[in-house]
Amino acid sequence: MQCNFKETMDKKTIENQINELRDFLNRCNYDYYVKNSPKISDYEFDIKLKELEKLEKENPEFFDSNSPTQRVGSDENQEFKQVKHKYSMLSLANTYSEGEIRDFDARIRKLLPEGEEFEYACELKFDGTSISLTYENGLLIRALTRGDGQKGDDVTNNVRTIKSVPLKLYGEGFPKEFEIRGEILMPHSSFEKLNQERTEIGEPLLANCRNAAAGALKTQNSAVAAKRGLDCYLYYLLMDNLPTDSHFENMKIARSWGFKVSENTVKAKNIDEIIAFINYWDKERYNLPYDIDGIVIKVDKISLRDTLGYTAKTPRWAIAYKFKAEEAAVKLLSIDYQVGRTGIITPVANLEPAHLGGTIVKRATLHN
Ligand code: IVH
Protein backbone atom coordinates (compact mmCIF):
# COMPACT_ATOMS: atom_id res chain seq x y z
CA MET A 1 0.00 0.00 0.00
CA GLN A 2 2.70 2.40 1.06
CA CYS A 3 4.79 1.38 -1.92
CA ASN A 4 1.95 2.20 -4.38
CA PHE A 5 1.44 5.56 -2.75
CA LYS A 6 5.14 6.35 -3.12
CA GLU A 7 5.09 5.28 -6.75
CA THR A 8 2.14 7.56 -7.52
CA MET A 9 3.95 10.40 -5.78
CA ASP A 10 7.07 9.79 -7.84
CA LYS A 11 5.09 9.67 -11.07
CA LYS A 12 3.40 12.94 -10.18
CA THR A 13 6.80 14.54 -9.52
CA ILE A 14 8.11 13.24 -12.83
CA GLU A 15 5.06 14.51 -14.69
CA ASN A 16 5.53 17.95 -13.13
CA GLN A 17 9.19 17.92 -14.05
CA ILE A 18 8.34 16.99 -17.65
CA ASN A 19 5.73 19.76 -17.87
CA GLU A 20 8.12 22.34 -16.44
CA LEU A 21 10.81 21.37 -18.94
CA ARG A 22 8.33 21.51 -21.81
CA ASP A 23 7.12 24.98 -20.79
CA PHE A 24 10.70 26.17 -20.38
CA LEU A 25 11.80 24.86 -23.79
CA ASN A 26 8.66 26.20 -25.50
CA ARG A 27 9.47 29.63 -24.08
CA CYS A 28 13.09 29.33 -25.31
CA ASN A 29 11.89 28.46 -28.83
CA TYR A 30 9.52 31.42 -28.73
CA ASP A 31 12.28 33.84 -27.62
CA TYR A 32 14.62 32.54 -30.30
CA TYR A 33 12.37 31.97 -33.33
CA VAL A 34 9.44 34.37 -32.84
CA LYS A 35 11.01 37.22 -30.89
CA ASN A 36 14.51 36.83 -32.37
CA SER A 37 15.94 37.43 -28.90
CA PRO A 38 17.34 34.25 -27.37
CA LYS A 39 17.66 34.25 -23.57
CA ILE A 40 19.88 31.18 -23.17
CA SER A 41 22.73 29.64 -25.15
CA ASP A 42 22.24 26.79 -27.65
CA TYR A 43 24.31 24.66 -25.32
CA GLU A 44 22.02 25.24 -22.33
CA PHE A 45 19.01 24.57 -24.57
CA ASP A 46 20.47 21.23 -25.71
CA ILE A 47 21.14 20.12 -22.14
CA LYS A 48 17.53 20.81 -21.09
CA LEU A 49 16.20 19.16 -24.26
CA LYS A 50 18.26 16.02 -23.58
CA GLU A 51 16.99 15.98 -20.00
CA LEU A 52 13.41 16.07 -21.28
CA GLU A 53 14.09 13.41 -23.94
CA LYS A 54 15.45 11.09 -21.25
CA LEU A 55 12.46 11.59 -18.93
CA GLU A 56 10.00 11.04 -21.79
CA LYS A 57 11.78 7.89 -22.89
CA GLU A 58 11.74 6.47 -19.36
CA ASN A 59 8.09 7.45 -18.86
CA PRO A 60 6.32 6.81 -22.20
CA GLU A 61 2.89 7.29 -20.60
CA PHE A 62 3.55 11.04 -20.66
CA PHE A 63 4.10 11.14 -24.44
CA ASP A 64 2.75 14.30 -26.06
CA SER A 65 2.91 15.03 -29.80
CA ASN A 66 3.18 18.74 -28.88
CA SER A 67 6.29 18.28 -26.76
CA PRO A 68 9.32 20.33 -27.89
CA THR A 69 11.15 17.00 -28.32
CA GLN A 70 8.81 16.21 -31.24
CA ARG A 71 10.16 19.17 -33.26
CA VAL A 72 12.93 16.98 -34.67
CA GLY A 73 10.38 15.01 -36.66
CA SER A 74 10.32 11.32 -37.44
CA ASP A 75 12.12 9.13 -39.99
CA GLU A 76 8.97 7.19 -40.80
CA ASN A 77 7.46 7.91 -44.20
CA GLN A 78 4.06 9.53 -44.03
CA GLU A 79 1.10 9.72 -46.39
CA PHE A 80 -0.75 13.06 -46.39
CA LYS A 81 -4.42 12.63 -45.61
CA GLN A 82 -6.83 15.01 -47.36
CA VAL A 83 -9.01 16.94 -44.91
CA LYS A 84 -11.90 19.31 -45.60
CA HIS A 85 -11.36 22.94 -44.57
CA LYS A 86 -13.87 24.23 -42.04
CA TYR A 87 -13.78 27.63 -43.81
CA SER A 88 -12.83 27.47 -47.50
CA MET A 89 -9.36 28.73 -48.20
CA LEU A 90 -9.61 31.65 -50.61
CA SER A 91 -7.00 33.48 -52.60
CA LEU A 92 -6.60 37.18 -53.37
CA ALA A 93 -7.21 39.16 -56.55
CA ASN A 94 -4.00 40.70 -57.89
CA THR A 95 -3.34 44.29 -58.94
CA TYR A 96 -0.25 45.77 -60.52
CA SER A 97 -0.77 49.54 -60.55
CA GLU A 98 -1.80 52.51 -58.46
CA GLY A 99 -4.84 52.90 -60.71
CA GLU A 100 -6.08 49.41 -59.87
CA ILE A 101 -5.73 50.16 -56.15
CA ARG A 102 -7.82 53.30 -56.65
CA ASP A 103 -10.45 51.19 -58.47
CA PHE A 104 -10.47 48.75 -55.55
CA ASP A 105 -11.07 51.60 -53.09
CA ALA A 106 -13.83 53.07 -55.30
CA ARG A 107 -15.55 49.65 -55.55
CA ILE A 108 -15.52 49.28 -51.78
CA ARG A 109 -16.91 52.77 -51.17
CA LYS A 110 -19.70 52.04 -53.64
CA LEU A 111 -20.67 48.82 -51.84
CA LEU A 112 -20.75 50.44 -48.39
CA PRO A 113 -23.39 52.83 -47.05
CA GLU A 114 -22.46 56.45 -47.70
CA GLY A 115 -20.29 57.96 -44.99
CA GLU A 116 -19.25 54.56 -43.57
CA GLU A 117 -15.84 55.14 -42.04
CA PHE A 118 -13.10 52.55 -42.25
CA GLU A 119 -9.38 52.10 -42.55
CA TYR A 120 -7.16 49.65 -44.41
CA ALA A 121 -4.63 47.28 -42.91
CA CYS A 122 -1.54 47.05 -45.14
CA GLU A 123 0.63 43.97 -44.83
CA LEU A 124 3.56 42.32 -46.55
CA LYS A 125 2.65 39.67 -49.09
CA PHE A 126 4.85 36.78 -48.03
CA ASP A 127 6.07 34.68 -50.91
CA GLY A 128 5.77 31.15 -49.61
CA THR A 129 3.05 28.56 -49.37
CA SER A 130 -0.18 29.09 -47.44
CA ILE A 131 -1.11 27.10 -44.35
CA SER A 132 -4.14 26.83 -42.08
CA LEU A 133 -3.50 25.96 -38.43
CA THR A 134 -6.20 24.71 -36.03
CA TYR A 135 -5.84 25.06 -32.27
CA GLU A 136 -7.97 23.42 -29.62
CA ASN A 137 -7.60 24.30 -25.95
CA GLY A 138 -4.40 26.15 -26.81
CA LEU A 139 -2.77 23.18 -28.56
CA LEU A 140 -1.90 22.81 -32.23
CA ILE A 141 -4.03 19.96 -33.51
CA ARG A 142 -3.92 20.30 -37.30
CA ALA A 143 -2.10 22.03 -40.15
CA LEU A 144 -3.58 21.92 -43.66
CA THR A 145 -2.26 23.17 -46.99
CA ARG A 146 -4.62 25.08 -49.26
CA GLY A 147 -5.12 22.20 -51.70
CA ASP A 148 -8.05 23.09 -53.95
CA GLY A 149 -9.39 25.58 -51.37
CA GLN A 150 -12.01 23.12 -50.09
CA LYS A 151 -9.76 20.23 -49.08
CA GLY A 152 -6.08 20.39 -48.15
CA ASP A 153 -3.27 18.00 -47.22
CA ASP A 154 -2.74 17.29 -43.53
CA VAL A 155 0.90 18.32 -43.02
CA THR A 156 0.70 18.61 -39.21
CA ASN A 157 3.77 16.43 -38.58
CA ASN A 158 5.94 18.62 -40.77
CA VAL A 159 4.53 21.88 -39.41
CA ARG A 160 5.27 20.75 -35.84
CA THR A 161 8.96 20.85 -36.74
CA ILE A 162 8.81 24.59 -37.61
CA LYS A 163 10.19 26.23 -34.50
CA SER A 164 8.28 29.52 -34.85
CA VAL A 165 4.91 27.71 -34.91
CA PRO A 166 3.62 27.54 -31.33
CA LEU A 167 2.66 24.03 -30.24
CA LYS A 168 1.11 25.42 -27.05
CA LEU A 169 -0.28 28.95 -26.72
CA TYR A 170 0.33 31.54 -24.02
CA GLY A 171 -2.17 33.33 -21.84
CA GLU A 172 -5.83 32.57 -21.27
CA GLY A 173 -7.55 34.81 -23.80
CA PHE A 174 -7.69 32.47 -26.79
CA PRO A 175 -10.96 30.67 -27.63
CA LYS A 176 -11.41 26.95 -27.18
CA GLU A 177 -11.19 26.35 -30.92
CA PHE A 178 -10.01 28.55 -33.78
CA GLU A 179 -8.03 28.64 -37.01
CA ILE A 180 -5.21 30.91 -38.00
CA ARG A 181 -3.77 31.18 -41.49
CA GLY A 182 -0.45 32.32 -42.75
CA GLU A 183 2.49 31.56 -44.94
CA ILE A 184 5.27 29.02 -44.60
CA LEU A 185 8.50 30.56 -45.83
CA MET A 186 12.02 29.49 -46.47
CA PRO A 187 14.29 32.37 -45.37
CA HIS A 188 17.22 33.21 -47.68
CA SER A 189 19.75 31.79 -45.22
CA SER A 190 18.02 28.36 -45.17
CA PHE A 191 17.63 28.42 -48.97
CA GLU A 192 21.31 29.14 -49.56
CA LYS A 193 22.35 26.44 -47.10
CA LEU A 194 20.08 23.92 -48.81
CA ASN A 195 21.37 24.74 -52.29
CA GLN A 196 24.93 24.55 -51.01
CA GLU A 197 24.22 21.03 -49.72
CA ARG A 198 22.63 20.11 -53.04
CA THR A 199 25.67 21.36 -54.96
CA GLU A 200 27.90 19.17 -52.80
CA ILE A 201 25.89 16.03 -53.54
CA GLY A 202 25.37 16.90 -57.22
CA GLU A 203 21.60 17.49 -56.98
CA PRO A 204 20.00 20.16 -59.21
CA LEU A 205 19.59 23.54 -57.49
CA LEU A 206 16.17 24.66 -56.28
CA ALA A 207 14.81 27.58 -58.26
CA ASN A 208 13.48 29.84 -55.51
CA CYS A 209 12.50 30.11 -51.86
CA ARG A 210 8.80 29.63 -52.60
CA ASN A 211 9.29 26.29 -54.36
CA ALA A 212 11.78 25.20 -51.73
CA ALA A 213 9.28 25.98 -48.93
CA ALA A 214 6.46 24.16 -50.70
CA GLY A 215 8.70 21.15 -51.33
CA ALA A 216 9.92 21.02 -47.75
CA LEU A 217 6.38 21.21 -46.42
CA LYS A 218 5.41 18.17 -48.46
CA THR A 219 8.43 15.97 -47.71
CA GLN A 220 7.29 12.56 -46.60
CA ASN A 221 9.89 12.37 -43.88
CA SER A 222 9.29 14.95 -41.13
CA ALA A 223 12.88 14.60 -39.86
CA VAL A 224 13.96 15.97 -43.26
CA ALA A 225 11.38 18.80 -43.10
CA ALA A 226 12.77 19.68 -39.64
CA LYS A 227 16.18 20.36 -41.18
CA ARG A 228 14.91 22.77 -43.83
CA GLY A 229 14.90 25.85 -41.55
CA LEU A 230 11.33 26.94 -42.41
CA ASP A 231 9.57 29.90 -40.83
CA CYS A 232 5.90 30.85 -40.53
CA TYR A 233 4.13 34.23 -40.45
CA LEU A 234 0.43 34.40 -39.58
CA TYR A 235 -1.98 36.98 -41.04
CA TYR A 236 -5.60 35.80 -40.85
CA LEU A 237 -7.62 34.72 -37.82
CA LEU A 238 -10.83 32.68 -38.25
CA MET A 239 -13.29 31.94 -35.47
CA ASP A 240 -16.93 32.49 -34.65
CA ASN A 241 -16.46 35.52 -32.39
CA LEU A 242 -13.28 37.41 -33.16
CA PRO A 243 -11.75 39.27 -30.19
CA THR A 244 -12.36 42.77 -31.67
CA ASP A 245 -13.85 44.33 -34.82
CA SER A 246 -10.38 45.34 -36.06
CA HIS A 247 -8.20 42.91 -38.05
CA PHE A 248 -5.12 44.90 -37.04
CA GLU A 249 -5.95 44.62 -33.31
CA ASN A 250 -6.85 40.92 -33.62
CA MET A 251 -3.47 40.14 -35.14
CA LYS A 252 -1.79 41.98 -32.25
CA ILE A 253 -3.79 39.80 -29.86
CA ALA A 254 -2.74 36.68 -31.80
CA ARG A 255 0.85 37.84 -31.37
CA SER A 256 0.36 37.83 -27.58
CA TRP A 257 -0.74 34.17 -27.79
CA GLY A 258 2.68 33.30 -29.23
CA PHE A 259 2.18 33.55 -33.01
CA LYS A 260 4.71 35.17 -35.30
CA VAL A 261 2.80 38.15 -36.67
CA SER A 262 4.81 40.64 -38.72
CA GLU A 263 5.52 44.03 -37.16
CA ASN A 264 5.76 45.46 -40.68
CA THR A 265 2.05 46.24 -40.87
CA VAL A 266 0.30 49.61 -40.82
CA LYS A 267 -3.19 51.03 -40.81
CA ALA A 268 -3.85 53.39 -43.73
CA LYS A 269 -6.61 56.02 -43.80
CA ASN A 270 -6.55 56.61 -47.54
CA ILE A 271 -5.01 55.61 -50.87
CA ASP A 272 -2.05 57.94 -50.49
CA GLU A 273 -1.02 56.18 -47.31
CA ILE A 274 -1.37 52.80 -49.06
CA ILE A 275 0.78 54.00 -51.96
CA ALA A 276 3.43 55.29 -49.54
CA PHE A 277 3.53 51.84 -47.89
CA ILE A 278 3.87 50.14 -51.30
CA ASN A 279 6.68 52.43 -52.41
CA TYR A 280 8.53 51.99 -49.14
CA TRP A 281 8.45 48.17 -49.34
CA ASP A 282 9.17 48.06 -53.05
CA LYS A 283 12.68 49.24 -52.11
CA GLU A 284 12.99 47.94 -48.58
CA ARG A 285 12.05 44.35 -49.51
CA TYR A 286 15.66 43.68 -50.53
CA ASN A 287 16.70 44.11 -46.88
CA LEU A 288 14.29 41.46 -45.59
CA PRO A 289 15.69 38.00 -44.78
CA TYR A 290 12.89 36.36 -46.83
CA ASP A 291 11.00 37.02 -50.09
CA ILE A 292 7.87 39.10 -50.38
CA ASP A 293 6.18 39.54 -53.76
CA GLY A 294 3.86 42.42 -52.94
CA ILE A 295 1.59 44.04 -50.41
CA VAL A 296 -1.83 42.93 -49.17
CA ILE A 297 -4.49 45.55 -48.47
CA LYS A 298 -7.44 44.58 -46.25
CA VAL A 299 -10.46 46.51 -45.01
CA ASP A 300 -9.66 46.61 -41.31
CA LYS A 301 -13.21 46.58 -39.93
CA ILE A 302 -14.28 42.93 -39.67
CA SER A 303 -18.00 43.75 -39.56
CA LEU A 304 -17.74 45.14 -43.10
CA ARG A 305 -16.51 41.83 -44.53
CA ASP A 306 -20.01 40.38 -44.77
CA THR A 307 -21.38 43.52 -46.42
CA LEU A 308 -18.58 43.49 -48.99
CA GLY A 309 -18.78 39.73 -49.50
CA TYR A 310 -16.85 37.40 -51.76
CA THR A 311 -16.51 36.41 -55.39
CA ALA A 312 -16.17 32.67 -56.15
CA LYS A 313 -12.47 32.63 -55.29
CA THR A 314 -11.56 35.89 -53.54
CA PRO A 315 -12.86 38.25 -50.87
CA ARG A 316 -14.01 41.73 -51.97
CA TRP A 317 -12.55 43.23 -48.79
CA ALA A 318 -8.92 42.52 -49.64
CA ILE A 319 -6.57 42.72 -52.57
CA ALA A 320 -2.94 42.01 -53.40
CA TYR A 321 -0.61 44.49 -55.04
CA LYS A 322 2.23 42.66 -56.82
CA PHE A 323 5.65 44.23 -57.18
CA LYS A 324 7.14 44.52 -60.63
CA ALA A 325 9.80 41.99 -61.49
CA GLU A 326 13.18 42.78 -60.06
CA GLU A 327 16.10 44.16 -62.02
CA ALA A 328 19.73 43.73 -61.18
CA ALA A 329 23.10 44.65 -62.64
CA VAL A 330 25.26 41.54 -62.91
CA LYS A 331 28.66 40.71 -64.31
CA LEU A 332 28.77 38.94 -67.68
CA LEU A 333 31.21 36.02 -67.49
CA SER A 334 30.98 34.49 -70.97
CA ILE A 335 28.62 33.80 -73.87
CA ASP A 336 27.62 30.39 -75.23
CA TYR A 337 25.95 29.84 -78.60
CA GLN A 338 23.10 27.40 -78.35
CA VAL A 339 21.92 25.67 -81.50
CA GLY A 340 18.20 24.98 -81.47
CA ARG A 341 16.32 22.08 -83.08
CA THR A 342 15.64 24.13 -86.19
CA GLY A 343 19.24 25.28 -86.47
CA ILE A 344 18.59 28.73 -85.03
CA ILE A 345 21.49 29.99 -82.94
CA THR A 346 20.68 31.72 -79.65
CA PRO A 347 23.41 33.43 -77.65
CA VAL A 348 23.22 32.60 -73.91
CA ALA A 349 24.97 34.71 -71.29
CA ASN A 350 26.72 33.07 -68.36
CA LEU A 351 26.35 35.48 -65.45
CA GLU A 352 27.79 35.91 -62.03
CA PRO A 353 25.00 34.27 -59.92
CA ALA A 354 22.54 36.87 -58.59
CA HIS A 355 19.40 36.70 -56.44
CA LEU A 356 16.56 37.89 -58.62
CA GLY A 357 12.85 37.55 -57.97
CA GLY A 358 13.55 34.86 -55.42
CA THR A 359 15.61 32.89 -57.94
CA ILE A 360 19.31 32.52 -58.45
CA VAL A 361 20.00 33.69 -61.99
CA LYS A 362 23.14 32.30 -63.65
CA ARG A 363 22.22 32.20 -67.34
CA ALA A 364 20.06 34.37 -69.57
CA THR A 365 19.22 34.06 -73.24
CA LEU A 366 20.19 37.08 -75.33
CA HIS A 367 17.71 36.47 -78.13
CA ASN A 368 16.50 40.08 -78.03
S1 IVH B 1 -4.79 37.14 -46.68
C1 IVH B 1 -8.97 35.57 -47.85
N1 IVH B 1 -2.45 38.22 -46.17
O1 IVH B 1 -1.09 35.37 -50.91
C2 IVH B 1 -7.63 36.18 -47.82
N2 IVH B 1 -2.55 36.47 -47.79
O2 IVH B 1 -2.16 35.56 -53.62
C3 IVH B 1 -6.60 35.30 -47.29
N3 IVH B 1 -0.36 35.84 -48.72
O3 IVH B 1 -3.54 32.92 -50.57
C4 IVH B 1 -5.23 35.70 -47.55
N4 IVH B 1 0.84 37.28 -47.56
O4 IVH B 1 -1.18 32.52 -49.43
C5 IVH B 1 -3.13 37.30 -46.90
N5 IVH B 1 -0.45 39.23 -45.59
C6 IVH B 1 -1.11 38.32 -46.30
C7 IVH B 1 -0.46 37.45 -47.21
C8 IVH B 1 -1.23 36.54 -47.95
C9 IVH B 1 0.88 36.30 -48.46
C10 IVH B 1 -0.63 34.79 -49.72
C11 IVH B 1 -1.71 33.81 -49.31
C12 IVH B 1 -2.81 34.05 -50.30
C13 IVH B 1 -2.04 34.51 -51.48
C14 IVH B 1 -2.90 35.25 -52.48
Task: Provide structural commentary.
With 368 residues, the protein is an alpha+beta fold. The chain has three domains: 5-71, Helix hairpin bin (Helix Hairpins), CATH 1.10.287; 82-322, D-amino Acid Aminotransferase, Chain A, domain 1, CATH 3.30.470; 332-365, no CATH class. Helix content is 34%, strand content 24%. The protein has ten helices and 14 strands. A hairpin with a 2-residue loop joins strand 4 (129-136) and strand 5. Helix 1 (2-34) runs antiparallel to helix 2 (42-58). The longest helix is centred in the first third of the chain and has 33 residues, at 2-34. 29% of the residues are buried. The model has no long low-confidence stretch (mean pLDDT 92). 2-(butylsulfanyl)adenosine (IVH) binds at residues 90-92, 123, 125-126, 130, 183, 235-236, 296, 315, 318, 320.
How far apart, in Å, are the first and last alpha carbons? 89 Å
The largest pleated sheet is described as: 5 strands, mixed
Helix segment count? 10
Note the quaternary state here: single chain
What general outline do the C-alpha atoms trace?
A: globular
Judged by helices, strands and strand pairing, the structural class is alpha+beta
Short description:
The protein has 368 residues and is α+β, with helices and mostly antiparallel strands. It is built from ten helices and 14 strands.
Keywords:
10 helices; 34% helix; D-amino Acid Aminotransferase, Chain A, domain 1; four-stranded antiparallel sheet; binds 2-(butylsulfanyl)adenosine; 368 residues; 3 domains; alpha+beta; single chain; 24% strand; globular; Helix Hairpins
